What does this fold into?
Amino acid sequence: MQVKTKGICYLAGAGPGDPGLVTLRTRECLEQAEVVVYDYLCNPEILKWAVPDAEIIYAGKKAGEHTLTQDEINALLVEKTRAGKRVVRLKGGDPFLFGRGGEEAEALAQAGLQFEIIPGVSSAIAGPAYAGIPVTHRDRNSQLTIFTGHEDPTKPEAVLDYAQLANQPGTKVMLMGVERIEKIASALIAHGADPKLPVAMVRWATTGRQQTIRGRLENIAQIVAETGFSSPAVAIFGEVVKLRDTLNWFESRPLFGKRVVVTRTREQAGALSVGLRALGADVFELPTIRIEPPQNLREFAELVQDSHTYDWIIFTSPNGVNAFFEMFYKLYDDARDIGGVRIAAVGPATAQRVRDFHLKVDVQPEEFVPEAILRGLREQGSIENERFLIARAEVTRDVLAPALNKMGAIVDEAIAYRTVPETSDVSGAIARFKNEGADLVTFTSSSTAENFMAMKLPMPAGIETASIGPHTSKAMRALGLRVDIEARQHDVSGLLNAIRAHFC
It folds into this structure.
């Protein structure tokens, strides 16, 4: 028996497309991976969970277009694992359900290498569910048959037993095979299947691009041709298809069919993306900025170290809170070392981030703008000769410090972080925007708008924009962008509400 290396390959199911359906185990392995090999059917949005220096390899295969052959993929997994790497092999759906995961596992086993199988949510179940079709139902059927419509082209004869399939009771689900639907439907009818059998086909299931068509076994191929319906898709054959009339929950959501671009940093995009997907939108993240430490990190560290000597600390963003306490806990190991300083925060998200560190927010104005902080401080009484530390971004509106100085305060500004243009595009969002366009692009700060425009991407005709608040809107207009939606409440929740109201 060969000696095993410290390397390991995780053959992981990437789910059917909705990032929310990826298992916790798959995400955990992705976050620790040194090499990620992913398929065409994997949602590239989940690649953001990998560490920045992970090696990302596309090994996609679709009809007539193979990046790597299966033998080459097997050899690649063996090579990387043998080199001692933590490898994640992402496969759409479940790796063992027509995913050729068994072949890849065999190759690793034969090489004496460690591997782990991580099951995934298959489109065979999730696709029908997101189309409002339960594959089993006590009053209609109690049996499920799953088969592939894409057999090995090197085999001289079809392996599918159409006679058995045609006469099999219950629901039948076919993965792949859109291009062969006419031949498959004809073969089923020829072997005794009811030509009137209800059929549904679901394309890009569980994502905002989902498309569903319905017909009967005798005419589904004609419907596919007339509508231009194409892969990737799952087909459902059976009486349960009729339940879609009352159970179609996903495609009735308010933003279904809308393509929405999220331009926040990769780390911050999650909450907005999740909220938009919950409304049915087809979301793709196109981060235009990323957060980096300030250029003068030593000066920032010295100010944080002296934070207990101030009367007030003002946080203007969650990023400032994160940067401040990351540095604070490098210098101190006890929250009480911050002393008796009082804290003011701009906006509920900033305030909540402070509370996450188990500290009280003394001033949080109802308006989410720096000027409102000044009104809140005035309500506290005189601030003459009180010492203030403002944790802010490197480039931001210089409003608070001059105003506080006029009120007699002593002010220091701690440059906690800086925003720089994002140059990485692991999910391929830029190419998708160029090729497909979008219905809406969202901006959550002036810097996201500025860096988006600096990319000089072609703006599709009719595209609309959404702004998180007046200061972002001002920057957008200065850049020549029209503002179609502006949040009244200047945070992610307010932006989601404004977008929903606009489209509903």
